[in-house]
Amino acid sequence: MSSDPRETSFYDMFAASADNIVTGSKLLMELLGADTAGRAEIAERMRAAEHAGDDATHAIFHQLNSSFITPFDREDIYKLASCLDDIMDFMEEAVDLVVLYNVEELPKGVEQQIEVLARAAELTAEAMPNLRTMDNLTEYWIEVNRLENQADQIHRKLLAHLFNGKYDAIEVLKLKQIVDVLEEAADAFEHVANTVETIAVKES
């Protein structure tokens, strides 16, 4: 193990990025119980979290460009940082759409979508520090893949619910866009897990 300080800072940066995603998932949970004024305020905090996420991603890219030695393949570092960034972007977009579209009530099932994202966020934040040693990561990517399958099922049920004829066409379009973006966030968690798996396989 090299003692090059530049090498270890990548781990801290990935951990910071994942911790920020946990913040984002908690804001999504808050969104569920909020009124219109509360939602606008949550969207502001989400925007700040998304900016912090961007800063974390740029720091990783900057470190990547200026490091002679990296702890694992450059393209994998780039991919992991990009996928973590995607999660935050999708979460922020979902909150923003709820506010912009003036959604009165989110359809039943969205809370399940958000619960899955919150669980995936916790697992991801717990996993990032383990990149140093490559220990205890198998359970992480298996569980995130399982959660993504669960998210798929919830998403399909939500779509069936939206198309059952009880909503007017415009409302369906608005709500479908929101549940689709939340599904993209679930997919992005899986992309992170798959990238971690790739890194672990190469390092073993």
Automatic annotation (TrEMBL):
<comment type="similarity">
    <text>Belongs to the UPF0111 family.</text>
</comment>
<dbReference type="InterPro" id="IPR018445">
    <property type="entry name" value="Put_Phosphate_transp_reg"/>
</dbReference>
<dbReference type="InterPro" id="IPR052912">
    <property type="entry name" value="UPF0111_domain"/>
</dbReference>
<protein>
    <submittedName>
        <fullName>DUF47 family protein</fullName>
    </submittedName>
</protein>
<dbReference type="InterPro" id="IPR038078">
    <property type="entry name" value="PhoU-like_sf"/>
</dbReference>
<dbReference type="Pfam" id="PF01865">
    <property type="entry name" value="PhoU_div"/>
</dbReference>
